[in-house]
Amino acid sequence: MTYSISRVKWQQAAPLLKNIREKVFICERRIPKNVEFDQGDRTAYHMLVCDDTSQEPIATGRISPEGEISRIAVVKGYRSKKVDKVVMEALFKIAQELSLKEVYISSPLDKVEYFIAQQFQPIGSVYMEVGMPKQRMACSISSAIAHAKEANYYFTH
User: Fold this and answer.
1) For the whole prediction, is pTM greater than 0.85?
2) CATH code for position 95
3) CA 19 from chain center: how many Å?
4) N or C: which end of the chain has fewer CB within 10 A?
């Protein structure tokens, strides 16, 4: 399988990005549409991955100008292909271009230990998002890059 990854703007690629996120977050994870698509989409940097053979959109992710990484989604059938790592590496590269020192994620509580093993550290207290307890976590960009090949990031909302 070969695929292409591109940095895209929400204003131009929204239908393709929405296609992926609707399949993963709205249909599979049952996240309400009004929560899934937020104001952050307009200002974030987005990555889009398409299958070279079918030209279908298969994965996406975004990073805010402040370093918040979210909406990492890989459609079924491609999750074992490590596409999420390519998305994360591209997002980490954007963080470097923005001269950010750290990146952040919102981890489901049951995945906190996993992200600690990937060098992310909890910050602040647990909070609720869409009925799920979450923990904000931070990682230096250098540590994030060093551990990107080992981690699985899809389903990071």
Assistant:
1) yes
2) 3.40.630.30
3) 15
4) N
